[in-house]
Amino acid sequence: MYRSLLRARLPLVADSLYSPRSCEARSNVVGRMEFSRMFVEGLGHFRSWEQSVARSMQVQIVNALCSGERDQASKLLSNLGHGNGLRDDDFLFILDYCARSPDPLFVMETWRIMEEREIVMNRRCYMFIIRALSKGGYLKELAVLQQNLSAVHEIWKDCIKYYNPSIISLRKFVWSFARLSDLRSAYNVLQRMVALALKGSASVRMSADGRYQSSRLDIPIPLNKRCGMTENGYSGLSALESIPVKIGEQKISTDSLLVDLPHIDNATEHSTAIPGNIPSVDEGNNGSSPQFSPVADVPRTGGLYLSAKQVLQSDPDMVDMELDGGGFGILKDIATLPVMKILRWSFSDVIHACARSRNCELAEQLFLQMDNIGLEPSQHTFDGLVKVVVSERGITYGMKVVKEMEKRSLKPYSATLATLLVGYSRSLELDLAEALLDQIVESSSKHIHPFNALLAACDAMDQPERAVRVLAKMKHLKIKYDIRTYELLFSLFGNVNAPYEKGNMLSKVDASKRIRAIEMDMVKNGVQHSRISMENLLKALGAEGMIRELIQYLQVADNQFCHTYAYKGTVMYNTVLHALVEAKESHNATEVFKNMKSCDLPPDAATYNIMIDCCSIIRCFKSASALVSLMIRDGFSPETCTYTALIKILLANEDFDEALNLLDQASTEGIQLDVLLFNTILLEAYLKGRIDIIELIVERMHQEKIQPDPATCSYAFSAYVDRGFLTTAIEALQVLSMRMISEEESVLQDKRIYFEELVLDEDPEAESRITKIFKESGEYLASALLNLRWCAITGFSISWSPNESLWARRLSSTYGPRTPASWKAKT
Fold it and tell me: Would you place residue 778 in the very low, low, confident or very high pLDDT band (cuts 50, 70, 90)?
């Protein structure tokens, strides 16, 4: 395509130079040449001055970064970005420094300014950016390069237009299309390779340097000028591999284009042109996907796919052979060993591309085709199949593939085992995941991902002891931590106390030592904080109640992240605000909120809900109402937690009537009421001795079909006990425990025999069995059974019809079902 444009331009230039009209105007041109020369020289001097200024500013910026003066470096970078006539070279020194440091945050800041000024970046700029981001562990936060897939298609079309490519050439195209995730094109070219091998004309030899080469020259017989040939000729793939092609501002060989193109998602829109009479779609199917033999069936995912059988049948020069009967099964009798190796590599390339595109169906079909044509899969082939199967079918199917490898006496790669380890980690099967650690023997840094996955699973299951063993294994294999590892370390070890435990002086000192140790290791390995690591650090400080350190680190996060990522900055501020409210630091929370607003960070619904909850500390319903108004003005509707916080403020002021009005308003507006909201009222009613409120709320929960939880039972039971109504307390506990199991009496009757055996069992281990049910079936069921067992031990009979209880019937007749207004009248 580029050569065609070049051929089109050259004649136009020649015509303009030697036409009569140009000869007449030649004297006028000469007259203007002296002025043009002076003007160009002036521009050159001006550009030289601009370059010297830009180079000086780059040096100042790098010196500021080396001195740790990041704010000054950012100001200088902003000044540089406001210059005129900027080019990519004016930022190259900065990008180079960021790549060597590495400094991923500043490289992103530099990149953002270059994009704002619409500066076209060369290959070196992209290389430095990628290096800085990858070394710093930030590669997932952006897509850097978007190579042109259509260029590969143009080369392919030109290639097959003038000659039949060899199997070596086809191998390069398969690799290119596979890396670009164009599965349709990769599949179709792969089938041409299979057909060529089955024809018996694919001949490959070994070069002096040990590389495979085609035994025939890839030089086509020129057709004629009517077919697009010029006097310069078109020398096929040999020329294709040597003639430089201009892409952007650079000239690169098409050979490097076919080898170094990176992965591009969503690039399957292009179809590959197949020469000859091969049909792209079966005419008998009205444009639908054709049906092929088991040799190379088209996957049911759709698209224009061609089988090797179709390629053979459509080419009159192909040898006549039997194609039915379940497959060819004859490749090993026709093809040479080098040809089979090349085919295996190409099959593996496409299967790995299927793994990246999560196309399990096509990968499985290609694997079966290899078996049909007698091509033995390699460890690399199995590695790609395991990856795609695990991602789509699950870890169990992945293990079946590994078992198949073992049957063939093939040892899985460490990368294959790493894929299985990640699968087990994501399904939280930690024992099986950890068992695979000892089998991973390679110490390459590319295998850090499975270790991070297992650490994340340890974090999710709150198992820091297991995480310590994982870290010891990483140290043994000399695997360097990346930013994701440090993010998980702050989450796993940043705070000392278990959840729901307040920090004390000893735990705060220990947590401070841990955080300092993690940060020192980050500095040692040249890794800077990411947004997630900083957020996890803030959570750890908040959990320990380390308010002073929390505010200090918020200022650091504010300078590094909050202004660059406004939304992420809001999330960080919410983390700090939540911790301050939990620590009842209302003044600090108010100051942080004001600072957030002054910095133009947009509050979200969570921010407003946290601050409304903060108003319950100072018992100011007026301030909470003002926040609700701001919340609605910013487009956020009040949620269940909003009403819970507002009701909490009213209850703190003992305004039960207004709290019940607000509860009715929430129900009228369609807010989904939950047990936490009702428990908020029950707790305050218990503390104030308001049994009437407790009975009203319990009946309201029953009418709304909201199941009680252990806190509900505790508040109601304790309120009756404190007033001396012991029998009523036991009866209420039984009813609420039954409702914890189920609100439907039919469910209770169905499971009555099984539950009754557990509750009335005199075996001392009965409670342990109930605790086991707690572990497997959830907290509510276990708590309910333990409550009922305690009632039975105290001598009370157990009724499995809670609605027939005298206490339940009294509440129903007194408080429901009626309108909210009549409920309030009863109080």
Answer: low
> For residue range 720-777, what is the model confidence (pLDDT) as tens digits?
999 999 999 999 999 999 999 888 888 888 878 878 877 777 777 777 777 776 666 6
Cα 421 to Cα 429: distance, rounded to the nearest angstrom = 9
Output the CA–CA distances (angstroms, integers) from residue 149 to 167, 505, 593, in the order listed. 21, 61, 49
- Res 771: pLDDT: 73
Count how many domains the chain has. Answer: 4
Q: Do residues 717 and 729 lie in contact, with contact meaning Cβ atoms separated by under 8 Å?
A: yes
Packed helices 379-392 and 360-372: angle between N→C axes, nearest 10 degrees: 150
Distances (CA, A) of 666 to 226, 642, 650, 661: 80, 10, 15, 9
Name the domain boundary from 480, 512, 544.
480
Whether 822 is covered by a domain: the verdict is: yes
Residues 6+ apart with CB under 8 A from 545: 502, 503, 508, 579, 583
In 675-800, which ranges are continuous DSSP H helix?
Answer: 675-688, 691-703, 710-722, 726-741, 745-750, 752-760, 766-777, 779-793
Q: Distance between CA atoms of 818 and 393, rounded to whole angstroms?
A: 52
Assigned token pair, 803? 């609605």
pLDDT digits (tens, 9 = 90+) for 177-219: 888 888 898 998 898 888 888 777 666 666 665 666 665 544 4
pLDDT digits (tens, 9 = 90+) for 565-621: 666 788 889 999 999 998 899 999 999 999 888 888 889 999 999 999 999 898 899
Tell me if 503 sits within 8 A of 544, measured CB to CB.
Answer: yes
* Full DSSP string of 374-404: T----HHHHHHHHHHHHHHT-HHHHHHHHHH
From 289, 293, 284, 291, select the one nearest 322 (Cα to Cα). 293
- Assess whether pLDDT exceeds 80 at residue 513: yes
Domain membership flag for residue 652: no
- Those residues whose C-beta lies under 8 Å from the C-beta of residue 10, and which sit 6 or more positions away, are none
Give yes or no: residues 130 and 221 share one domain. no
Quote the domain boundaries for residue 472: 379-480
How many whole angstroms separate alpha carbon 607 and alpha carbon 290?
Answer: 56
Range among 126-130, 244-248, 399-403 with highest mean pLDDT value: 399-403
- Are residues 220 and 201 in contact, defined by beta-carbon separation less than 8 angstroms? no
| Residue 88: burial class (beta carbons within 10 Å; 0-12, 13-18, 19+) | middle
For residues 282 and 314, state if they share a domain. yes
Reported pTM: 0.64
Rounded distance, CA 336 to CA 327, Å? 19
Concatenating the DSSP letter of every residue in 582-595 gives: HTT-HHHHHHHHHH
The tokens 């009005």 sit on which residue?
A: 661
